[in-house]
Write a structure and sequence with these properties.
613 residues, alpha/beta, SH3 type barrels, Leucine-rich repeat, LRR (right-handed beta-alpha superhelix), Ubiquitin-like (UB roll), five-stranded mixed β-sheet, 22% strand, elongated
């Protein structure tokens, strides 16, 4: 027998093969003159491995879906694969301990194999066969008898070429919850619904880089009646159509990253009732619009969406961010590596505006937005007993009266996104305030720590309460002139409301910016502003007052370092507070060394009181 004349499967065309570590699909079986013997015409998954489009000396033997991905190989050079249990036996008898300690990734979930005490296939909770030559289930019923407790299965980069072959395996795994099928080429089944029993408990499915279109996904969707987590990263998905009232209704997480999406079709996903996470990174998006709602209103679309990833797209307009404020459940948002710009070109300014515009986000670009609030040292507030100290950094309006207490997000029914302190306050709303600890605030029982879930992640970063407060106040100042010019003190113009849908809410929250603040066109340049500060030593009458010019961005720990050099007193013993001529008789504590002078709203001419133990 010629080396090329090996025994071939009857259904060789369409089968998956491996050769030299690469995967391919057989498109042709037969002669290729003037050579002798049988050849396989294959289309490689890795297009760079190919040499042509199935044409040899002017004759078209087969076609390829990707140009230049085809070539001819001898049958003796390739593997058509092996059945599931043979692959399991080969792998797991090599080093069971090593296999059992591996991690498995199913879509967005990372699962660690459970250590099993008994070295038997029956006890395996997870099986990883990625990059193996599995192509079929094997004899009927053997998988069910041999590996009955598998919950997580990885069949990525295998030689399985049809969904019916996948179903023949999973049908025998009654506990299966997660399935990894990435980097395969799977022929769609003629009747997907007939295979749904084989995936009846499946909740997580990864189909990354499987060359799928959206229509193919919807065609297969009836197979997955309980699916919650679906990863379709790196496929050929462009136009998206509505799944309708039946398909994908249980879906909570969807990844469409690295697909050439048509952005106008994205709203077809808006009706998915349980969708909480949506990853649209690297999809070429530049615009998002929810036509069912106006500026500052909530959209009815994506009702459950909490986590949105728009990293590495082409978003350059702030109107897109304005649209995202309409998402009523959004808590986590990431938009790294987008061409969003601000007038000063500072990326930190961009982050500040994002925080100010997105009131419900608690994680921004992967960073946590801290919503913890400490309420100490007040015993009565509006006639209600409380028991926490509250710091009110410079608020414009408090119960209808203009004040200069430092920055509050919420008081008397309005949410507070920050740590608040009312040190040494004797009267509030006509009620005597004495120091001690909280139980009620405006009739509501509170804890010393209050979590406000409206803010959480922006670009993967948890947004801290003081970051949000500072960003919102700076946002008010940054666009204060435009607000006035648009008729802000009466009713802003529709154009201004469209560009800044949250501005009026922020005015209600903090009060209107003062005229002096409006004259600062770029509040984010405060780091370059020098403040004239008087240092007074109330416990040392003989020590003369000191005057220094310091940048507003200077942190308290550096201020204490300066005082240490001047006073020769250890920084750990120094305690700082300040007073303002605008609020005579009120002393504000400065108790966080990592915060800047700007954070405490210290202004030119204020006095810092220095004490030490």
């Amino acid at each position: 027998m010629d080396a090329s004349e090996v025994l071939l499967p009857d259904d060789a065309v369409g089968r998956r093969v491996s050769y030299g570590g690469e995967r391919a699909t057989v498109r042709y079986v037969g002669p290729v003159p003037p050579t002798t013997g049988v050849w396989l015409g294959v289309e490689w998954d890795n297009t760079e491995r190919g040499k042509h489009d199935g044409v040899h000396e002017g004759v078209q033997y087969f076609t390829c879906s990707s140009p230049g991905s085809g070539s001819f190989v001898r049958p003796s050079k390739v593997s058509f694969g092996l059945d599931f249990l043979t692959a399991v036996e080969q792998l797991y008898h090599i080093d069971t301990d090593e296999v059992l300690s591996e991690d498995i990734n199913i879509s967005s979930k990372k699962l660690q194999w459970d250590r099993v005490r008994e070295r038997s296939f029956e006890s395996l909770p997870s099986i990883i066969l990625n990059r193996s030559d599995v192509c079929s289930a094997g004899a009927e019923g053997e998988i069910r008898e041999t590996t009955p407790n598998v919950r997580w299965l990885d069949l990525s980069r295998t030689l399985i070429g049809r969904w019916v072959d996948v179903a023949a395996i999973t049908d025998q795994m009654v506990a299966l919850e997660g399935l990894q099928l990435s980097f395969n080429r799977l022929a769609p089944p003629p009747d997907p619904a007939s295979l749904s029993a084989s995936f009846s408990r499946l909740t997580a499915l990864a189909l990354m880089e499987c060359a799928l279109s959206w229509s193919q996904v919807l065609h297969c969707a009836p197979m997955w009646p309980q699916l919650e987590d679906l990863s379709l990263e790196g496929n050929h998905i462009s136009a998206i159509t509505s799944p309708g009232p039946v398909l994908l209704q249980t879906l909570k997480s969807l990844t469409l990253a690295r697909n050439p999406l048509e952005q106008e079709s994205l709203l077809a996903l808006a009706s998915l009732p349980r969708l909480e996470q949506l990853n649209l990174a690297q999809t070429g998006l530049s615009m998002i619009h929810f036509p069912d709602s106006g500026p500052g209103e909530d959209t009815q679309m994506f009702p459950a969406l909490k986590n949105l990833n728009l990293d590495q797209n082409s978003i350059s307009e702030w109107s897109v961010v304005n649209e995202l404020t309409k998402l009523r459940s959004l808590e986590q948002f990431s938009c790294r590596a987008n061409p969003l710009k601000t007038s000063d070109g500072n990326h930190k300014t961009c982050t500040q505006i994002l925080i100010a515009k997105l009131p419900r986000v608690s994680l921004l670009n992967g960073t946590k937005v801290n919503t913890t609030i400490n309420l100490p040292r007040v015993s009565l507030l509006n006639g209600t007993k409380v028991n926490t100290t509250i710091n009110l950094p410079r608020v414009s309006l408090l119960n209808g009266t203009k004040v200069k207490l430092p920055r509050v997000s919420l008081l008397n029914g309005t949410k507070v996104n920050t740590t608040i302190n009312l040190p040494r306050v004797s009267l509030l709303n006509g009620t005597k305030v004495t120091p001690p600890r909280v139980s009620l605030l405006n009739g509501t029982k509170v804890n010393t720590t209050i979590n406000l879930p409206r803010v959480s992640l922006l670009n993967g970063t948890k947004v801290r309460a003081d970051d949000r407060r500072g960003a919102e106040l700076d946002y008010i100042k940054l666009f204060g002139e435009a607000w006035l010019q648009a008729g802000g003190r009466s009713q802003p113009s529709p154009d201004f409301i469209t560009d800044h849908p949250r501005y009026q809410a922020l005015i209600q929250k903090y009060g209107a910016p003062e005229d002096g603040e409006l004259k600062k066109p770029e509040p984010f340049a405060l780091k370059n502003q020098l403040l004239k500060i008087h240092f007074l030593f109330p416990d040392d009458a003989e020590r003369k007052r000191i005057e220094k010019k310091l940048p507003a961005s200077m942190e308290l720990q550096k201020v204490k370092g300066l005082l240490h050099r001047l006073l020769k007193i250890p920084t750990a013993e120094l305690s700082l507070s300040y007073t303002s001529p605008k609020m005579e008789g009120t002393e504000f504590q400065m108790d966080n060394d990592l915060k800047s002078l700007q954070f405490y709203s210290i202004e030119d001419g204020d006095t810092v009181l220095v004490r030490w133990s």
